[in-house]
Amino acid sequence: MNFIYNLSIFTYSILIRLAAPFNTKASQILKGRKHVFDELTNKIKHDRPIAWVHCASLGEFEQGRPVIEAIKKQHPEYRILLTFFSPSGYEIRKNYELADYICYLPADTKSNARKLIKLVNPEVVFFVKYEFWFHYIQELKKQNIPLYLVSAIFRENQLFFKNTPWGKWYRKMLFGFSHFFVQDEQSVKLLAGIGVTNVTKAGDTRFDRVAEIASNGKDIPLIEKFRGNSQLVVAGSTWKPDEDLLIEYIHAHPEIKFVIAPHETKKGNIDRLISQLKTPVICYTEATAETVMNKQVILIDTIGLLSSVYKYADLAYIGGGFGVGIHNTLEAAIFGMPIVFGPNYLRFNEATTMVKLGVAHPINDYSGVKAILDTLLSDTGKRKEITTACISFTQQNLGATKSIVGKVFNKLHI
Asked: Which CATH number fits domain 213-396: 3.30.110.10, 3.40.630.30, 3.40.50.2000, 3.90.190.20?
């Protein structure tokens, strides 16, 4: 099985090289990995202990970020190494100010794992959610360096729980972790069923992150002016299938105002949206207090605003549900409002829970969008009920970061 795994890593590396001239993401991975060891050799200092946090991409970073910030606040003697697998994480967060060193994770080969761990010599390591890299896990275990998996979710259909040769081999990786901090009780039970008991149900650190964002959220007078006395729907991280449904509803309801923050903010995509909208629309970067007054739609054509825009909404639509999966629902939920999204949400624990609570509402087509938006926007009493349930849900799930950092560092400093 080791041979097959190593062959898959080698094959992937070759494919990245072949695709690089034609694919931006492949090119970024190849270029980013090329000088990792040289850059770390020149930059890394060992005058203080190092905590290594590894995230696959941007979504996992948002789960690892509260842990990094808690370490920096409670244990400032530590330096932080932050690594990414994907360009969508690295390219956006390569200048993250609370990490001392930020780089791509070199390919998971035995030599790379040995070289990186020897070079960094971390005192403690955190992998976030789904990261399982055989050689890195084995080398950390060999060096007696504690490794923790945080905000993890396990499902019955994962390889760990299959009694196939590949599943049994994959399962062995779990025994390289010092402790698992999982999101739900099902994960605890699944792990116990295969003999893994070093587990704590801590929850999802993203709740702590969005609560922090909400408490420090900036006021946006332009959005407040735009909303006025109208009802406001904020559509976040949308893709074309989401936008097609919303635009039809927008055209049918000129009395309701919309803020759309598309996942892709490049000019070409913004221009496409403007051409589709047959109603007064303006881009946020071009708007003024005067020019927003006669508009029905604002397009957010910059990044970093969405989490603060949600607080002005009566209802939030979260994009991605007609593609690989919905985007961050918690940024809206923390403000206590009804949430609507497409059908692909079942892989997201917080979303399935909110659907059961009646806080979130999945839709499949335009008739679904129309029915739920008409109902929720017209029923003030129902929205108040949802607000109460939504705030209760988010408040009950705070504290994962405190649990993780407390347990890990209390053990380290005994």
From this structure: 3.40.50.2000
